[in-house]
Amino acid sequence: MKQQLSSYLWLVGVVPVFAMPLIYAEVAIAAPALTTGSSKASTLPIPRLGEVARPHTRADLLTQDAAPVDRPAPGTIEVRGVRLNQTEQGFEIVLEVPSGQALQAQTRIEGNALIADIPNAVLVLPEGQEFRSQKPAPGISNLTVTQVEPTRIQITVTGTTAAPFAEIVPDAAGLILSVEPDDESEEEVVVTATRTEEPLSNLPRSVTVIPREQIQQQSALTNNLPDLLGKLVPGLGPPTQRNLTRGLTLRGRQALILIDGVPQNPNSGFQTELNTIDPSAIERVEVVRGPSALYGRGATGGIINIITRRATTQRLESQVSVGVRNDLGAFSGEGFGYNLQYGLSGKEGPIDITVRASLNESGSFFDANGDRIPPTGINDVTSLGLLAKLGIDIDPQQRLQLSYNIYDESFDTAFRSDPIVFSIPGLQTARAQKFPVQYDQKPGQTNQVANLTYTHENIFGSQVTAQVFFRDTNLVQSFTDLRGRPFPAFFPALWQTSLDSKELGARLQIQTPFSTAVNLLWGVDYSYEENSRPVLISDTSVFDRTRTLTASRTRPQTPFYTLNNLGLFAQLQWNLSPQVLLSGGLRYDNFSYEVGDYELAFAAPGIRRGGSADNSGISFNTGIVYKFTPQTSIFASFAQGFSLPDLGSAFSSVAPRASIRGSDLLEPQKVDSFELGIRGNWGTVQASLAGFYSTSDLGASVRIRPDGTTELQRAPQRNYGLEATLDWQPTTKWRLGSTLTWNEGENDTNNDDEFLALSSLQVPPLKLSFHVENETLPNWRNRLQLLLVGDRDRAFDDRVDPFRVENYTTLDFLSSLKLGQGTLELGIENLLNNQYLPLSSQERTGLLETLRFAGRGRTIFLRYAIAF
Fold first, then answer.
1. Other C-beta atoms lying within 10 Å of the C-beta of residue 745
2. What is the pLDDT of residue 662?
3. CA separation, residue 248 to residues 255, 273, 760, 790 (Å)
4. What are phi and psi of 20, to 5 degrees?
5. What architecture does CATH give domain 38-185?
6. Cβ atoms within 10 Å of 616's Cβ, excluding its own
7. Strand order through the sheet with 130-137
8. What is the average per-residue pLDDT within 774-791?
């Protein structure tokens, strides 16, 4: 009774933490994504009133009691309950029988499965003649207790990569099977690639996992997630040093970005989807390279799934960190920035909470020459982040989780990019000009995600996950002054672009095991999206007189439209043998959209006709993994991606009085991708090598015009490349690692079988990274990491780009020292103070020359973090 009262009081104290963000959200329904991977193996149930724990049991993980139903045949023993208890080595399976009766068992190994046969026994459970648990412990994928014959029970425990060890323990309460997973089974588990938990070695795809420890380490260099991932993920473009994913393609195509499985990509937006959560709120990031037929939604390049922090198993735990940052070249108060983080996590009975709050003030940026860098979207920015999660274990097999994430960025600077560069011959590096203005609508972005997930481990033998989510994105950009520039007269002279995007969706997925070797995942996805990109046009006379931007009128950059997406999918996983794993599946997508008649801010005056249309298609995937040894495997896969282009931009390109129906600009894109790879884990060495080739009859690529603006091209397209990783731990104190990314691409815009190079905005040059890490003294680790971005001339030579890509190299230093109860962290970005232009700046030419921002010079960050 005291424990129940404590649980209720604890909940009353927690609920107010969630009240404010839920009121703030327009729709507070949703849940941690399908891919949060929450598992009952890490939770402990509430003891029932009157229940007495057995002395040798550490913790009950799962309990099912049984009441007698039909009486069994004489001579058989009733098994009235099945219980799982956690142990230091693994877990115990306890079969409960009437007092004074004993069970016998014989065990054997079949592939990855441990099987125990128990004769002269019958299951008498409320659920019938079967008990099932998915992922009951690390290294274990499945557990079943089944009545296979009228008087024989069979226990099957399937390891992820190898059969577990087991020992039969005599017990007066029945029979105990003590299970210890094989060490090789305790490998990294990935959820994004298959929408279920699956060991990395079982996947016929290239997948990169960035764990919490690495995110924490790299955030000592940058709080900008696009830059953090650009340094670590093979196949992804290099860091942009902006708040945009423009140029941050995955294998030369666009990636679908998720937070706990919730899509963050508006169909038409400004490519800021990775700046929608603070890195301190991230548990890990899973990157699936190549198109996905499981998710749909534009994942033609792959998937970046951001999985948020999970609750601790402790009753209550707090973490606090304080950090400061400054530019070592200009070392001034203007270059000063700071970072504050607070985390609260805990579990009491069936309830667990996670709260992460962050405040980041970036300060001004300076290049290696000590010159101020104009506003890039990540300097002179104040960001506030809040993640709140509440989980309830309804019973040992049911869980409900509610989460809410809000991330707000506001830009406040007295500088702009000086337009004087237009009057200087040749390409110039952007320079800052002091130009303070007042905004009616201050530049910034606010992104909210609310998420509700319900999971049941066993409904008629299947694991069921249902999700409802809501996303709301609002963005206003800095002003643009076009006066004196060679633009058409109908263009507005002084304006800000903005975005208003909302999405409401639901997902249902069901995992049905047919045997220990065959599983079927099937389900349905639905989403409804509203998108508009208004242009806020200001009065030039008021601006010249008061330096105040007042949005006197608005016109659409892209019109308001609605988009519905329905997806049906089925995916079969078949472990043909311990060495051969097969998978394959289908997805059906239907997109329907509607837009009214509209005018445009950046097009010749005239009403454009709206209308409605729908597109549908089927995408397919199949893959095979062959394990030469438990440490080495090869994999091959074929996968398709089906998606719509950016409808807003496509609507803007439709000619006046033309119908949106039948326009190639609005046609969906279907990508076929082939991948072949090898990977291995040999104790102190891990390596992988993969090659890919993808093609689409109607690609979606960009071409950069001589004036610096871009145009969408729909033409046959192909992309191909190689990716490699190598990690080595020669001793317990040393770690070395390297990644290599090389990819190319071209399209046939004239349909004459003459393929020209894709823009370097879409296909980045060679990217090579290397790091060496050493535990110099106990509790003191140091790391050097190098990033090389190569040259690329192909698109310039083919007259697709008006610029060549010039190579550059950066070197960073990271250090961490256990100090007292916490950790002191030091990060120095661009250690050698190299002056360079990031790739995302090199492509800015012509009318966009003011966006050719230099890279940051040598910058230092110092942080102290403590948990209590």
1. 24
2. 66
3. 9, 11, 11, 15
4. -60, -50
5. Sandwich (2.60)
6. 12
7. 106-110, 113-119, 152-159, 140-149, 130-137
8. 95
Higher local confidence (pLDDT), 648 or 678: 678
* CATH fit for domain 189-303, picks 2.170.130.10, 2.60.40.10, 3.40.50.20, 3.90.150.10: 2.170.130.10
pLDDT per position as a tens digit, 685-696 = 999 999 999 999
Asked whether residue 37 carries a pLDDT value surpassing 50, the answer given is: no
3-class secondary-structure state, position 185: helix
> When comparing pLDDT for 759 and 165, which is higher?
759
Alpha-carbon gap, residue 549 to 370, rounded angstroms = 31
**Banded pLDDT at 159 (limits 50, 70, 90):** confident
CATH number of this structure's domain 304-867, picked from the four choices 1.10.3430.10, 2.40.170.20, 3.30.450.20, 3.60.15.10: 2.40.170.20
Looking at the chain, the domain(s) classified CATH 2.40.170.20 span: 304-867
- pLDDT number for residue 140: 83
537: its two tokens: 């046009």
Domain with CATH 2.170.130.10 in the chain: 189-303
**Residues belonging to the chain:** 868
Locate CATH 2.60.40.3500 in the chain. Answer: 38-185
Predicted confidence at residue 4, as pLDDT, reads: 44
| Amino acid at position 641, single letter | G
The closest of 724, 787, 722, 720 to 758, measured between CA atoms, is: 720
49 burial level (CB within 10 Å; 0-12, 13-18, 19+)? exposed
pTM higher than the cut 0.85: no
pLDDT of 49 higher than 70: no
